[in-house]
Design brief:
This protein is α+β, with helices and mostly antiparallel strands. It has twelve helices and 17 strands. A hairpin with a 5-residue loop joins strand 16 and strand 17.
């Protein structure tokens, strides 16, 4: 947030607050400590996470500023969250927790109870007023920088929260957060409960409640949206792992894909004969990852859906073992592509998908694989989807009975990703077994 300095000439009891100053970093503290007003009283807002981690020197400085009588400090929420938004999405317990934890940090630093409460961005609702009162605050600051006495009757204009809650992708993100919050509540009464883990997981979820995540989900910048989604899901994954749970399948799929194709939320859906999600990969923004892979059958075609974070010069191969018979096919990958499979995963058909089209190859016992056909692909960038339809006359059988190796290659022939496997050394030559549902 940019520094906000709002000029005020408002009386509060017997004091005049001349300005509200938002401090974003430790360097600003020294500047204001040196130039603290001797004429009028300023109110400083320091985010709780910054306040908790101030150097000892700066903690002494702000205490001196406060004791001078010419500076007051407002307390904030634990993380920079919009409290009425949390109420709207029914994360009610976290509203109180955010206020109380922010208050605890204030007491630790100043050794006093705070009187002034600053709701993030100054956004408050009528429902929130009573909760702030119950936490023993006497005054709060509005978005206009005005001070309100909580002991008096006041008229509150309800805020418009649609910017953080109304888009379908935002609703899905909030639903995922609420599910994770339920798991945390269950963890607190479980036999595996540890206080240190609870504190770690609460910090994670409180961070994910910040409005910036939901603002970025509706950004016009596609790269920003993609990176935001990767980090948001990584945070959700951390929550589950900290408390000893496997992250649900749904959060390993980008939220935009989940919205556009809700069948991907369950790997048992009848739409796909086979569906594999890459739950193994660490989420790394700006990397090229195979996200998931599904196969379904229409009346005339075998349809391969490949979800990939990006594809430019990379190639993705799909090796198909149709019978799970020992050495009944090739164990080598296509020419120029490093790697191989085991004899029980030997493939009879291979598909190589480039940025423009797809080649279908058939194993040839006496030589190089035979090219069966070249097929157009359909790319749907918004869904991170590459769709390939191959007429059933070229490749017959039940896709649910086949084994699959889905592997991505760089132009050098090195592997950049394998569905269901982490690749730590891209230039290594590794053996990759087939994935199967049966």
């Amino acid at each position: 947030m940019k520094k906000i300095i709002l000029i005020l000439l408002l009386f509060l009891t017997d004091l005049i607050y001349s300005s509200v100053i938002y401090i974003n970093n430790e360097d600003e503290i020294k500047k204001y400590a040196i130039n603290v007003s001797t004429v009028s009283k300023n109110v400083f807002i320091i985010p709780a996470d910054l306040l908790a981690n101030l150097s000892d020197e700066n903690k002494l400085l702000i205490n001196k500023m406060k004791s001078s009588g010419n500076a007051e400090f407002a307390s904030t929420t634990f993380t920079e969250v919009i409290l009425p938004v949390l109420m709207k999405v029914q994360l009610t317990d976290d509203v109180n927790n955010q206020i109380k934890r922010g208050k605890d940090i204030y007491r630790q630093v100043f050794d006093k109870q705070p009187n002034i409460f600053y709701p993030y961005m100054g956004i408050i609702s009528k429902e929130m007023i009573e909760i702030v009162r119950q936490n023993d605050y006497t005054t709060f600051i509005t978005s206009a920088g005005s001070f309100f006495d909580l002991k008096s009757t006041m008229t509150i204009i309800e805020p418009n929260l649609s910017f953080w809650t109304d888009a379908p992708v935002q609703n899905l993100a909030w639903n995922y957060l609420k599910k994770a919050r339920t798991k945390i509540s269950e963890y607190t009464s479980s036999n595996s409960y540890e206080n240190e883990k609870l504190e770690a997981v609460l910090e994670e979820i409180y961070s994910l409640e910040k409005p910036i995540w939901f603002e970025n989900y509706i950004s016009c910048d596609e790269d920003k949206k993609r990176e935001n989604d990767l980090w948001f899901r990584a945070g959700l994954s951390n929550i589950y792992r900290i408390i000893g749970l496997e992250p649900p399948l749904e959060i390993s799929i980008p939220l935009f894909i989940s919205l556009s194709n809700s069948s991907l939320l369950s790997s048992t859906t009848s739409e796909y004969n086979v569906y594999f999600n890459d739950e193994i990969d660490d989420v790394i923004p700006s990397s090229c990852n195979i996200i998931s892979f599904g196969v379904k059958k229409s009346t005339t075609d075998i349809i391969f859906d490949l979800f990939i974070s990006s594809q430019e010069s990379e190639v993705v191969d799909i090796y198909i073992d149709m019978n799970k018979k020992n050495n009944a096919g090739s164990t080598s990958f296509l020419q120029g592509h490093k790697g191989y499979t085991d004899t029980m995963s030997a493939w009879e058909y291979a598909i190589s998908i480039s940025n423009a089209n797809a080649y279908l190859y058939r194993y040839n016992r006496s030589g190089n694989p035979m090219t069966v056909g070249i097929f157009n692909i359909e790319k749907i960038p918004k869904e991170k989807l590459v769709k390939l339809k191959i007429p059933e006359k070229y490749i017959r059988g039940n896709p649910g009975n086949w084994g699959y190796i889905v592997v991505g290659f760089l132009p050098s022939g090195d592997i950049f990703d394998v569905l269901g496997k982490n690749i730590f050394q891209p230039d290594s030559i590794i053996q990759i077994p087939a994935l199967r549902v049966k």
